[in-house]
Design a protein that fits this description.
The protein is α/β, with parallel strands linked by helices. It has 14 helices and 19 strands.
Length: about 500
């Protein structure tokens, strides 16, 4: 317990032993937050005057004191958020943040996963401090349960998905798809940290996306992942787009370009084979959650939609079914170092926007001022908002059974894959579309492929650019309009 608690109860013979003096903030007054059970709130109100005098004498505040009472029991989400915020102060345990879970029923407990080396450091530093933090900030006793696990170098506890941090894989059951690739060893995604020629890389294939170059020549992009790490691939010869390769383990051979500033690599693929690799497998598909918890979708209604397919124009077969168009705002451009600050999405059903899904996200780090100037999203706005891992089950439910669409999907989808794979909500089985890749075919001769230029060429607008929901709505309208033109 903290010193204020100890001294108050020493002077009152334990009269306030069931209270917690969580924190003090200073403005014109000194505001002391007192945490108690609901059954004790009347007791605190009745003794406010005595408490104020004790605190003034013990702390020596040279200003008036205001006592704020918090008698609300924690929820699973609020308890977890408090532990995460505390944990971020300890750099050497920050890699296990995504494993933190909290339960408030039937008993209150915080669960952590650590590898042995981390635990050896934490048991004499972080863990006792965490226990003190919980004792000081919550009226009920909260247990701390630490599970010792073997972590991969990529920071995930899922050895089956991440290959246990391997640098390379032994390959089996190789089936060529493009070219005659039959190598028996390939490097892991996470081991690609420099440029190279004729590099064989193995991973799980997701995000196969069709593109049209400005010259009119088609090509395809896709990602390979192992665990929460991914690498972008570009295929200019051959096609995998309509082959049954999504969420399958493959090996590719090609040349690697590497951007050291962002620690990101791209493979220009010449050959590709299906294969099996010991220790590498797709993240299993999970059952759809029965209800939304952190984010509730809303019905979408807008008059302009009535003109999208008017005059008896049939909805193209290519846009029949359900599509989710989404957009992230983030703290920066690197999927390795940066985090989402906002997610906006809309669902298209048979050519019309039917639902929206939108939330700010607490990135658990400061948003650079230049990013705030561009997006309008500030640190104050995201404080207390849901964490990324808390909204992923809801977004998994929202996108289940749908194709997903972005403008420049190679930026947004890796954030979704990385976050989803870390938490077990895998999005790798979703079919993907990119409006940036479709634009040259729908708009022959277009010089620039930014979202605002594509919208301008289509006669559309985006009134609140660089906010996730507005960008998602604009992208959805562009997608509908281009499918209406090209119908692929």
């Amino acid at each position: 317990m903290n010193g204020i608690y100890t001294e108050v109860n020493k002077r009152t013979d334990g009269k306030y032993r069931d209270l917690r003096f969580a924190n003090v903030s200073f403005a014109k007054t000194a505001t002391v937050t007192v945490v108690c059970k609901k059954s004790d709130s009347d007791f605190v109100y009745a003794n406010k005057s005595e408490l104020t005098g004790l605190l003034s004498d013990i702390c020596g505040f040279h200003r008036s004191i205001d006592i704020v009472i918090n008698s609300e029991p924690p929820t699973d989400a609020s308890l977890r958020a408090a532990v995460v915020a505390f944990t971020e102060k300890f750099n050497y345990v920050s890699s296990m943040l995504h494993t933190v879970t909290a339960e408030t029923k039937p008993n209150k407990c915080v669960k952590l996963k650590m590898h042995n080396a981390m635990y050896e450091l934490a048991q004499n530093d972080y863990i006792p401090r965490l226990k003190d933090f919980l004792s000081d900030n919550f009226a009920d006793e909260i247990a701390v349960d630490v599970e010792i696990v073997e972590f991969s170098r990529s920071g995930t506890a899922s050895a089956a998905a991440s290959g246990g941090g391997r640098a390379e894989y032994d390959l089996r059951n190789i089936t060529p798809v493009i070219g005659g690739l039959t190598v028996n060893k390939a490097r892991s995604v996470m081991s690609i940290t420099e440029p190279g020629y004729n590099v064989a890389v193995c991973g799980v294939l997701v995000m196969p996306t069709y593109f049209i170059g400005k010259s009119g020549r088609p090509y395809e992009k896709f990602l390979l992942y192992d665990g929460d790490m991914s690498i972008q691939c570009r295929l200019t010869e051959g096609s995998i787009y309509n082959r049954d390769l999504v969420n399958k383990t493959v090996c590719v051979l090609g040349n690697v370009e590497y951007e050291s500033a962002r620690n990101e690599a791209t493979v220009t693929v010449r050959e590709l084979s299906l294969c099996d690799a010991d220790g590498l497998a797709p993240i299993p598909v999970r059952a759809v959650p029965t209800q939304y918890t952190a984010v509730q979708p809303k019905e979408y209604a807008e008059y302009i939609q009535s003109s999208m397919f008017e005059n008896n124009v049939a909805v193209p077969p290519s846009i029949k079914g359900d599509f989710v168009v989404f957009d992230f705002e983030t703290t920066g451009l690197s999927v390795l170092y940066d985090r989402p600050t906002e997610l906006g999405a809309v669902k298209i059903s048979d050519g019309f926007i039917k639902e929206s899904f939108s939330t700010l996200i607490d990135p658990r780090r400061d948003i650079p001022s230049e990013v705030s100037e561009k997006t309008g999203i500030t640190n104050e706005m995201v404080k207390g908002q849901p964490l990324f891992e808390d909204i992923l089950p809801d977004f998994y439910k929202f996108t289940y059974g749908c194709s997903v669409v972005c403008h420049n999907i190679a930026f947004d989808f890796p954030f979704l894959i990385r976050g989803g794979n870390r938490t077990g909500w895998a999005f790798g089985d979703r079919k993907t579309y990119d409006t940036m890749g479709l634009a040259p075919k729908a708009l022959p001769g277009i010089a620039r492929l930014s979202l605002d230029k594509v919208l301008e060429a289509l006669g559309l607008s985006n009134d609140n650019a660089h906010r996730a929901l507005s960008d998602a709505v604009a992208t959805a309208k562009a997608f509908i309009a281009m499918q209406k033109r090209i119908g692929i």
